Amino acid sequence: MIFHFKPTQKHVLLLTLSTIFLLSACAKRQWVNPANPGAQLPQDSFACQQMAQAHYPVTLVPVTEIDTWSTNQAQQSAERAFKSKHLKHCTPYCPLPTVAPIYKTYYTDANQSPRETFSDSCLAAKGWSHIRVKQ
pLDDT tens digits for 76-86? Predict the structure, then answer.
């Protein structure tokens, strides 16, 4: 059986946007200051980062989520143990044990994104532009 695929405009648009996204993800970006070519990015960047840090200090917040890998491993282990013990006496419809989810907690900086946005806006206010550079 042979299937013929006829791309629609929607498929072409999706492929085009996906390609652009993938290529733009690989593009390098660089700060430039066309109004003041002699400007020093490290000094301006440091000053902006200091102001951003003052406005948005590091704030670590806990994030708890299900550790799917550990939970799956525990479930498989419980199923193997159950089958090895009850396989002789169990019908094909014997219910397998279920394992409670295993959680993991890590910490993330709640202010990281606003701090980066503030710093970028500060650099832009000083005349800097963040442009893509061809590789």
Answer: 998 888 878 76
- The per-residue pLDDT for range 28-63, each reduced to its tens digit, is 888 888 888 777 888 999 999 999 999 999 999 999
* Residue 41 and residue 74 in one domain: no
Within 10 angstroms of residue 48's Cβ, the number of other Cβ atoms is 20
Structural domain including 53 reads: 1-59+110-135
CA distance 42 to 38: 12
Residue with structure tokens 């492929």?
15
Count of domains for the chain:
2
Give one DSSP letter per residue of 82-127, joined into a string. Answer: HHHHHTTT--TTPPPP--PPPEEEEEEETTHHHHHHHHHHHHHHTT
Same domain assignment for residues 49 and 4: yes
